[in-house]
Specification:
about 140 residues, mainly beta, eight-stranded antiparallel β-barrel
Length: about 140
């Protein structure tokens, strides 16, 4: 039987804020790069949450390929309202991505966008620069 201290320690561990990382999403212009959003990755997770500033109310998700560590799927999700279903969400593929470690980027290819969008593979120094909070639901994955 677990002791009270073990139970309290386990509860305290659950209440600790999760560590997460923030990555810049940008486009590359002729003279400079323009930041167009941010990606978030919760420690211990493999699914990135992408927030594009053009679509403030929407979240995109980047899931790694099971076959190739450099490839990803770009997806959206919508709640599954069927009470008989075991799946909480419907997942929709909206593009793909490919990592280029020599350039330090992931190239994001959305099905409906012609312009190239990139994500850096190096997290920012701070996940909350200038004291900004994390956007609501940015870290909620599953």
């Amino acid at each position: 039987m677990k002791g009270l201290k073990d139970i309290l320690d386990a509860q305290a561990e659950k209440l600790k804020p999760a560590k997460f990382y923030r990555f810049q999403i940008f486009t590359q212009g002729s003279e400079k790069k323009n930041t167009v959003g941010m990606a978030y990755l919760k420690e211990g997770q493999t699914i990135y949450t992408l927030r594009l500033w053009t679509f403030l109310e929407d979240k995109f998700f980047m899931l790694p390929s099971k076959d190739d560590a450099t490839k990803y799927l770009l997806m959206t999700r919508e709640p599954n309202r069927s009470q008989s279903s075991k799946n909480k969400y419907f997942w929709n593929i909206v593009g793909n991505a490919k990592a280029d470690s020599s350039k330090g980027i992931v190239e994001l290819n959305f099905d409906l966008f012609d312009k190239k969008i990139y994500m850096t593979i190096f997290p920012e120094d701070s996940a909350t620069p200038y004291g900004r909070s994390i956007p609501d639901g940015a870290l909620e994955v599953v």
